[in-house]
Amino acid sequence: MVKNTPQQTENETTVRATAPSNIALIKYWGKSDATLNWPANDSISMTLSRARTITSATIRSNAPAENCHRLAFRTSATKSIAVRDQEKTTRFLEWLRREIKPYGSAEGALDLLTYNSFPSSCGIASSASGFAALTVAATAAWTGTKNFAELHDLGISRAHLSDWARRGSGSACRSIHGGFVQWERGHSPNTQKINPVFSVEHWPLTDLIVLIDRGAKSTSSTEGHARAFTSPLMNVRLSGLGERLKNCAQAIEGRDLERLGTIIEAESIEMHAVMMTSNPRTDYFGSATINFISWLRKSRAKGEFSAWFTLDAGPNPHVLCRPEDAAAVKATILQNFPSSSVIHDQTGSGAILESEQNFGEFIPGGFDGH
Amino acid sequence: MVKNTPQQTENETTVRATAPSNIALIKYWGKSDATLNWPANDSISMTLSRARTITSATIRSNAPAENCHRLAFRTSATKSIAVRDQEKTTRFLEWLRREIKPYGSAEGALDLLTYNSFPSSCGIASSASGFAALTVAATAAWTGTKNFAELHDLGISRAHLSDWARRGSGSACRSIHGGFVQWERGHSPNTQKINPVFSVEHWPLTDLIVLIDRGAKSTSSTEGHARAFTSPLMNVRLSGLGERLKNCAQAIEGRDLERLGTIIEAESIEMHAVMMTSNPRTDYFGSATINFISWLRKSRAKGEFSAWFTLDAGPNPHVLCRPEDAAAVKATILQNFPSSSVIHDQTGSGAILESEQNFGEFIPGGFDGH
Predict the structure, then answer these.
(1) Least C-beta-crowded within 10 Å: which of A131, B193, B316, B356?
(2) Architecture field, domain B206-346
(3) ipTM of this complex
(4) pLDDT under 70 in chain B at which residues?
(5) Chain B residues whose beta carbon lies within 8 Å of the beta carbon of residue A272
(6) Contact call for residues B196 and B370 (beta carbons, < 8 A)
(7) pLDDT single digits (tens) A223-249
(8) Contact state of A232 with B297 under an 8 Å Cβ cutoff
(9) Shortest Cα–Cα distance, B301 to chain A (Å)
(10) Domain covering B14-201 assigned CATH 3.30.230.10 in the classification
């Protein structure tokens, strides 16, 4: 693995992929098989739109060996820094190469340049968007394709890309598709399915991501997943998730935000209760989170707005509301939590390749070194 | 306080009261004022029918002093044992005497003989039925009344009895009334209200109390209540309870058992999550409870029956179902948990005085020394 910083110049053979993050409505927490990323339960998420990772990939002409990939984060329009620990990415890329082989040459080392449209440690799952964008970019580069239609002609569908992205980071599989995506664990690691169950057009919702605590996470998601089954609540949780997921899907189908909101709040508190009762204890529930949630619920009960929260494995809440209410809800949040900042996102349409359409508008100032 | 065992002979001046236990659907957990039993939140319960405390009270003719009450538990049809620690009861009775004074003489020490129709440490709140029966019996004895009509003529309503019973043990207030009872905390300890919101006739339900763990509770409810606010989940819980209680009342009003079931399961798990994340940790969630809950949910999801659980501050689940399904659900439980036993109870009509109606049928073998 070469350590020098790539000063990549995009050329004709460069492909550029972008993938959004997603917010889980029914959470993925705990794995039945950690190596194969086989989740303990089915989950369902909403794909986001503006919170994205953008990754370009070029086959490196003069690499010393096939697995000498170079991964860099773009820090500004002209600068980038090499990623320090490339081991996980390299391992994933070499696994991916073997999957792609039946469909294309998949030869050569890759130069990868990536950046996020959102700040780091903000409650947006960058590993979801990151591994989704990486998978699409690497696949396109190695197969010499420029868009999903060409990939499709080679026999590579979104279902393949989703399944591959999952091996990099579990929740990345849900970011390949748009709208509302259900990840079914199946009966074995190899019978998992990732299904887009409702489109963006079916029900566009707003997700206001409220940054109230910018501290780095004390426990990684990987470590948290591994602890899940030490909680006395874990099996109880799993036994009830089938019904909850069914209810969640019905609420989305019927566009019933109040019903969906009640479900996602109970769901995210339950996941955090599992975390808090794990051994060792994982606790993302600081006073900032508690105060915000309590305020949101009390304000809603008073009829001030119709908005519900969910939480990923971190302290920053996502507030879901109807697009027509978003401006007012956001203003009320900023008025009551003046030191917070709010990222205004919405239901989106999944991963794209550059030649297919524009990347769309990015969040101003959202460029981030990591 | 005299220490000898009372060999009480019931005579013309003996009154006999009986009060059922109740099962909370929205729980009472945590107090805003421990001395005045001012709960942190509103709760709603279903009054039971067969799980009862029966207490007779007689004014003691030759007591050395007014506060020399004697309290004994009946252990068989002819035997009783004196209660060792009578301090809490005596303190409550002296407080109650002052409340009753405006309505009657309230003079003399009381001989009290009591027993439960259910075994101890079984997940049935004996303090609820116990303090409710005690309140009614003592009030009737001190005012020389024999039924609720005579009490009413003196100006003592069920609302008074309920409010008084609450001072003995919070949840006892809900056992005075029948059907579904809401305990509203109000804006101060003195503005609490206990309202029977739906009658027994509105929606009779079955409660199967499943004894899977007969070990004594490791932490008393009093101690558990005191720890509630040390949990990071407590304020989050409180902020969402208004909506949950509203939904619960709507489910009862609409006789929607599936909706009610979903609410009470989430509610009881949340209460136990607060317990488990309190400092020190209170944990009633042993493997027996986890296995039972998981089994119940999975069986229900497979369509085997329509039954939902709730848990009080203990390991033994209460399973709610429609009366017409009760026999089948009970049989399935006993088949899958052959070492458990099931107490078959149902919605009941609150506290009674003997002269008004029969005590009804008691649970065979349910007599218990404590």
Answers:
(1) B356
(2) 2-Layer Sandwich (3.30)
(3) 0.85
(4) 1-12, 121-123, 355-370
(5) 233
(6) no
(7) 899 999 999 999 999 999 999 999 999
(8) no
(9) 7
(10) yes
